[in-house]
Amino acid sequence: MILGTIPTRLVGAGVAEREEARVRRGTNLPWVGDYNQAVVLDGVRRHPGTSRTDLALATGLTLQTVSNIVRRLLERGLVAEGEPLSRNGSRVGGKPRTALAVRSGAALAVGVQFEREHVDAVLLDLSGEVLAADREPLPDLPGSRERAVEVAVTHATGVVRRLIDTCGSPDAVLGVGVAVPGPLDFAGPVRSSAINLPGWRGVAIADMLAASTGLPVLVENDATAAAVGDLWRSRRVGRSFLYVHVGAGIGGGVVVRDEVLRGESGNAGEIGHVVVEPDGPACSCGAGGCLEAVAAPAAVVRRYAERVGVAAARRAGLRLAERSVLDDHDRLGVRAAAGDEAAGQELQTAARAIGRVVLGVVNVVDVSEVVLGGSGLRHAGERIRDAVRAALGVAMTREVHPVEVRFSDAGEQAGALGAASAVLHEALSSTWVGVHVPAREIVISPVAPVH
Q1: Using CB atoms within 10 A as the burial measure, which of 173, 214, 225, 306 is most buried?
Q2: Does an H or E element contain 369, and which?
Q3: Is residue 447 part of a domain?
């Protein structure tokens, strides 16, 4: 896709040349007005303070077309006008250019992320600002896996309602985005069979949450959702990156030139189920030696306990319970930093395995960034980052372009934030119907048109 450039004088100085602010190109053909509106709104959203003239130059649309679109966006309350722009403190010659920005609170979305021990949720506005966030612990239900989903949905519904109550304008909420581990089935009602969530087999999570909240629901794989959030909140366009999510499991989200790769069924990016040890331990997916079975927090904790003995592991502070995996993994990170050789070696084994898989993905899809996120990085993040960087030292494209490895700035709620971002993106760039009066009964699918 051809890209335009908004002059950097209007969006802040000191930005590296390769991160120069850019927006998508539009078209002046008469039958694609909705697309052009999405292009203009995206330009304003990414670059608050830009003007109609600069948007026209960046998108390739005529100034009249941009002005007409901006007028409609102003009428809908999605965009607001600011003070006339000036250069070096003096007024611009001729008719002043007026700064544009998205209007705070005009369009909102809730993002929900299901984890084994809790539900995370965020309330996001069109500018990308997190207006509120919450975490709802889930009760331990030993021997009651069939109730786990029902209880999780009930708690998620409660946290969604609490967040909406804080916004003061519930009609501005366009929908709920849900991030869950894969696999997902998008044929018919969106169903989740999250292998890392007890009791989740063929769960019609979109229908369940739509019924309990009265809002449209979008369901996305958690790692892909995190990638969508990183993409949507970035000022840059044309990005190609791999998002690596390390939580209870390991997943990936792949973006190539701003396009999220979802594959035939919407389950692309399952890097946790790339086989790294053909004779390795059994994986929950049914295969053996998968990355997740070797390098996920549960695998690291298990190997440590096998290595030093269960009694010694408990003396080291590990609880060795299903719901304590992430806490135990954190404990190993702390012990490794304090000199526990066994803990350090097991964490390093996992980090190197992640690095090898990341290298393979980078060589296949040719990305220029690797973004790391998830609760499994709390005390192992630097070790994993360094292992990924070392592995990428032999990437096929190393002499063509560098591959940046960095941590996500969204924290542990990256999946929830990404799911909310996906709702806003679907609602405002696919169709403009229902921006002010959302169709509460619809269910949004990220791999199918809104229906």
Answers
A1: 225
A2: strand 369-373
A3: no
Number of domains the chain is built from:
3
pLDDT tens column, 83-131: 765 554 444 455 668 899 999 888 999 999 998 889 999 999 988 899 9
Model confidence pLDDT, tens digit, residues 410-431: 988 999 999 999 898 877 763 3
pTM given for the model:
0.84
- Give the whole-angstrom CA distance, residue 428 versus residue 297: 38
Which tens digit of pLDDT belongs to each residue from 140-157? 876 666 688 899 999 999
Q: Are residues 214 and 154 in the same domain?
A: yes
Residues 254, 380, single domain; the answer is yes
User: How far is it, in rounded angstroms, from Cα 249 to Cα 137?
Assistant: 19
Q: Is residue 445 part of a domain?
A: no
Clarify whether residues 59 and 71 are in a common domain. yes
CA 91, CA 316: separation in Å to the nearest integer? 67
DSSP structure string for 3-36: EEE--GGGT-S---GGG--EEE-----TT-HHHH
Establish if 443 belongs to a structural domain.
no
- Determine phi and psi for 88, rounding to 5 degrees: 55, 35
- Residues 287-323: pLDDT tens digits? 999 999 999 999 999 999 999 999 999 999 999 998 8
In the block, residue with structure tokens 């612990």: 137
Same domain, 132 and 254: no
412: left (phi over 0), alpha (psi -120 to 50) or beta: alpha
